[in-house]
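Researcher: Please predict.
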Amino acid sequence: MYQSQKSPIVFKFFSWYVAYIIKKDFSSYNFNKLQIKDDEAILLLANHFSWWDGFLMFYLNKKLFKKQFHVLVTKEDYKKLWFLKYLGAFAAETNGKDVVQTLAYAGGLLDNPDNLVLIFPQGKLYTSYIASISFEKGVMQVVNASKKKFQTIFSANLTDYFSERKPEARSYLASWEAEEYVSLQLLKSEYNKHYGAAVKSQGKAL
């Protein structure tokens, strides 16, 4: 498994840099506030449609959640974007057993209330124009590897230009209270209800 690596200097620089490029490349970035539980970790589930997604969620954590940031990425992204490991990225190195161990590691992170674990349930990039967000089964392996005492937050990330030269980014957030038994289908259904509502709200944004 490729693990995240701590370097306060590199983290501090890229923390500043991420905030800088978001401000530079977007006309605005908005999100709604939620009640965050200090005594629980956060499992953050978000759609994945652009290079920006992880950086927006990293910035969101800095501004709202204020947890230790961790994100599950692909092996390709981990190796291609070398700095991700200093921002909390981890990835499976090989298929099979290493994937299982990586997902178990992610579940273990959720047992620490200081942590936030970002997962893109689609597993790879998709266009933002799809009607429904798919969920890979690995999401449930993460959940089941934990003690299931964490806060689940849905983020639907959408962009539009409207009347601006630069796009506006918005994260529609919702906290979801899981039932005692959670299935992949239920998690997918509840996320997509939130995603559909976010798309409707985005259409009324002007």
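Model: The mean pLDDT is 93.
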